[in-house]
Amino acid sequence: MSQARPVTPVRSGAVARYAAETDVLIVGFGCAGAAAAFEAASAGADVLVLERAGGPGGSSALSGGELCLGGGTEVQKACGFEDGPDEMFGYLQAALGPHTDDEKLRLYCEESVAHFQWFVDRGLTFEPTLWDAPTWMPTTRDGLMWLGENAWPYNEIARPAPRGHRCATEAFGGWLVMEKLVAAAGAAGAVTHADTLVTALIVDDDDRVVGVTARRHGEDLAYRARKGVVLTTGGFADNEEMLADHAPQLLAHGRVSDGLDDGSGIRMAAALGAATRRMGVVELALTVLPGLAVRGVVVNAHGQRFVNEDVYPGLLSTAAVLTQPAPYWVIVDEEGYESVPERERWGVVPRFVSETLGELEGELGMPPGALESTVGAYNTYAARGQDPYFHKDAWWLRPLKGPFAAVDPRAGFRQGGRPGAGAGTGAAGFTLGGLRTTVDGVVLDVSGAVLAGLFAAGRAASGIHGEGYVSGTSLGDGTFFGRRAGAAAAAEGRTRPSSGGSAS
């Protein structure tokens, strides 16, 4: 279990000397920190990034690398899709909801094309081709993928257009996104101190945040920020105490993180009275293969369907883990299994195979007749090209014929599984709640007032999400609002003289 360190703010008058002074001090060097560092340095500010690990990257570098972008990017146009900010907003408001932060989401959608170009300008390339099949992660260099926009009910809410943008690499690409952003931040003038664990915020007599205390190579240090401190420290998926308090549904599952998402930035700001938002919301992903799921049915422990299998797999996963009795099974027939290209099966093989549904439900411990009833109803309507219960697209509808197989998501992928998957449940996730901020990353206190000198972005902050999630909205949200936080911190008009200490 994570051990909570004291995070009581330190008064600047108690600081004897500062190890370094800078205009903008950024805590954490994942995607949000890199974006903030680049924008602040590009605005002419002196920028220092403090990273607790041995180098930059964090959980962002371990991610799939998808970027949820739209509104009419060049890649969308090259693939023959029309999109606009309103259509993008309509889809994301539904998929990330309920209770999205509509002000942030609207801004994100309106400036998405420009944000796409920002990535291109930082050196990322996107192939003008579409991966047109359900998946967590394409096994090709295709630059565009669906994020469930073409599944019910989202295809009735907004005109479908794929918005998952992928930089030119096969499989996981978070490392490449971070490589380009870290290089850009360094080229803009940002300096990094690695192996530096920030322990508390420093405030002056007016309660303005003016720096941080830290520990580096066994030495206690203080760093001063003349303009602002930007917290980009990640979420709290690795803090058992915080999970127990705010998001206990994640405790039993694996974690998608680099192991250092301990909520330190959230706790430091909360010690100053910072407000938080959506602390109980998590993303959960089952190690279920979307390509198999759409070709069959997904059922709960009672043999009942509960979702249209062509929906974004993260939404399917959350619906299963948070609302349905476990275990969950993908029921597929031989034709469906064999129609998935071997490379896209990721080594997954069925755990149970039976000639009849009655035999299969017995092996799975389901109520007698439950699976037969579910598949029987499914087959009746599939033969007509219909799914009146859950509205799966007719493209995937086909009566299932024996022999039948049950694929257990708890078995995981034999190769290339999602980071952190496991814990014996077949599900892994991360937190989505965090500090309440303005669209410019300014941290607000519990009364809605500004905490002067303090900014936050990425998973340390509550971004565009409500109670839902789709791939690419962490890297997209983190970089977009990281950029705004860095720029806002650099634009702080008040530059104060040293208080209670001198730089070494």
TrEMBL record:
NCBIfam families the UniProt entry points to: PRK07121.1-3
Keywords of the record: FAD, Flavoprotein, Oxidoreductase
Domain annotation FAD-dependent oxidoreductase 2 FAD-binding: ranges: 23-474
Protein name, UniProt field: FAD-dependent oxidoreductase
One Pfam short name: FAD_binding_2
Family annotation (InterPro entries): FAD-dep_OxRdtase_2_FAD-bd (IPR003953), FAD-oxidoreductase_2 (IPR050315), FAD/NAD-bd_sf (IPR036188), Succ_DH/fumarate_Rdtase_cat_sf (IPR027477)
Cofactor: FAD
PANTHER family: 3-OXOSTEROID 1-DEHYDROGENASE, FUMARATE REDUCTASE
Organism: Streptomyces rutgersensis
Ranges annotated as spanning the membrane: none
Superkingdom field: Bacteria
Keyword Flavoprotein: yes
Flavoprotein in keyword set: yes
